[in-house]
Amino acid sequence: MERAGALIFLLGVFLVLTGMILALLGTQQASVSVGGCILIGPIPVCFGYGAEPLLLIIASAVALLVMLLVMYVLLAGLTSVSRPTHSPEE
After folding, report:
1. Is 35 helix (H, G, I), strand (E, B) or coil?
2. Are residues 2 and 21 in the same domain?
3. Within this chain, do residues 37 and 26 fall inside the same structural domain, yes or no?
4. What is the pTM of this model?
5. CB 45 within 8 A of CB 37
6. Residues 44, 61: contact at Cβ < 8 Å?
7. Tens-digit pLDDT profile for residues 1-42
8. What is the per-residue pLDDT for 56?
9. Do 31 and 53 meet the contact criterion of CB atoms below 8 Å apart?
């Protein structure tokens, strides 16, 4: 099991390094746009830079909302407690 974990880790490192090298070789004059949302407690912090940051901010906000809804549904299913249908007799 440890060997499989080490192999997966090394594969991940290799893929990241390969992606970085390919990105460096492929960049000549590319336009870069960055955007995202970070949820700090109940407050969303959104940021963006570039030609189309608003589209990226909206996409990341929607993805964040979907993840929160999925987590709510999963956790609500785990914490459901069955209540007795009759009163206990004393």
Report:
1. strand
2. yes
3. no
4. 0.44
5. yes
6. yes
7. 678 888 888 999 999 999 888 888 876 666 777 877 787 877
8. 77
9. no
Do 10 and 41 fall into the same domain?
Answer: no
Among residues 65, 72, 67, 31, the alpha carbon closest in space to that of 46 is found at: 65
- Domain assignment of residue 88, yes or no: no
In a domain, 87, yes or no: no
- Asked if the structure places residue 71 within a domain, the reply is yes
Q: Which of 56, 59, 79 is nearest to 67 (CA)?
A: 59
Q: How many domains does the chain have?
A: 2
Query: What is the per-residue pLDDT for 17?
Result: 92
CA pair distance 27, 19, nearest whole angstrom: 12
- Find the domain containing 11 and state its range: 1-30
